[in-house]
Amino acid sequence: MNPAESAPAPATPGQPGDGAAPGAGRNGRRKSPQAKAQSNPTPKAGRNLPAAVGVGLSMLVVVLGGLVLLPLGFVLLTTAFTVFGVWEIFRALQGRGTTLPIVPVMTGTVAIPLAAYFGGQESQLFALLLSSAAVMLWRTIEGAAGAPRSIFAGVFTLAWVPFLISFALLPLHAVSGATPVGFWPDGRVPEGAWQTAAMLLLVVSNDTFGYLVGSIFGKHPMAPKISPKKSWEGFAGSVAGAALIGVLACLIFLDKPWWFGLVLAVAMVAAATAGDLAESMVKRELRVKDMSSILPGHGGVMDRLDSIVFAAPVSFVVFSLFSGV
Q1: Dihedral (C-alpha) 55, 202, 216, 304: value to the nearest 10 degrees?
Q2: Is 299 helix (H, G, I), strand (E, B) or coil?
Q3: CA distances from 155 to 39, 160, 225 (A)
Q4: CB-based burial, 29-43: b 16+ in 10 Å, e otherwise
Q5: What is the model's pLDDT at position 8?
Q6: Largest Cα–Cα distance of the chain, in whole Å?
Q7: What integer pLDDT is reported at residue 309 of this predicted model?
């Protein structure tokens, strides 16, 4: 008999050290990989698939519905998600001994997206600078102990989450000379809203196709020290799936040539992947698996925003560069 499958030494039931090796079944035998896979409902890509799909689709419907039907509702929803994401960062940093000056950081987290929507790029940048100055002043008044690290963390958080994600709201700023606070004027959805919708759809397609292809065919890790479950096969699936969605978006509602969908898709996949890896690096430094468990099958809010915060400014730049196409 294989020594690894030998019967355990006699021991008193229920006592520690009952003779079963780690991972062994009730009869003391080690479970085969097949048995482990059958007993574990979470697939190898690391998510509870039914919960992830249900939560993801619900969020997508609510967000796109608000974007198309009620712009201010979309802005407030985006701001609320951003606040939750920053709160998760605050708690994770606190667990590692770094305390964000939460009052000025949260104030800036609310102010920056609203400034981008109501005031445009100049207001967006001014809100970031004013919020960063408030972080430094607030933390300096509290005392010198640990101030440099706290200030850096506060400014970094403001620039990483609310500032970058507010680029998704800039295309909604100017509509017929006035920013709407209710429904879109004349009931027509402007081009800027469709641009933001396309960005969100491409980020979702990047995650979805990358997950499906990676969980089935993934064998070659893209960045094993940062995100071991992200594979080159999954990345290829993301590019192919996003290219399909990008071309369809151009043909259906973007009023752009089909090849622009390919350009936008590649840019979005690259940005979303970089955002995902960047958050993975932060989580590795903070020694946390997920920022929280508020979203079943997804983890925390930041685990969903990580791709969007990088994709939003890249999308804004791409649409600006190709505005005449």
Answers
A1: -40
A2: strand
A3: 45, 8, 27
A4: beeeeeeeeeeeeee
A5: 44
A6: 82
A7: 94
Tokens describing residue 239: 């590019």
Give the rounded distance of the alpha carbon of 224 from its chain centre. 19
pLDDT of 226 reads: 82
Rounding to the nearest 10 degrees, give the CA dihedral for residues 278, 231, 288, 132: 10
Q: Where do the domains of the chain lie?
A: 71-184, 190-325
What is the model's pLDDT at position 55? Answer: 58
- 10-residue block means of pLDDT along the chain (325 residues)? 43 42 47 46 51 63 78 89 93 88 96 93 95 94 86 95 95 64 71 91 90 86 82 91 95 93 96 91 81 65 88 96 82
Question: CA 322, CA 324: separation in Å to the nearest integer?
Answer: 5
Closest by alpha carbon to 162, among 204, 100, 202, 111? 111
DSSP assignment of 16-83 equals S--SPPTTB-TTSPBPPHHHHHHH--S-TTSS-HHHHHHHHHHHHHHHHHHHHH-HHHHHHHHHHHHH
**Pairing mode, strands 227-231 and 221-223:** antiparallel
Whole-angstrom Cα distance, residue 325 to residue 321?
Answer: 9
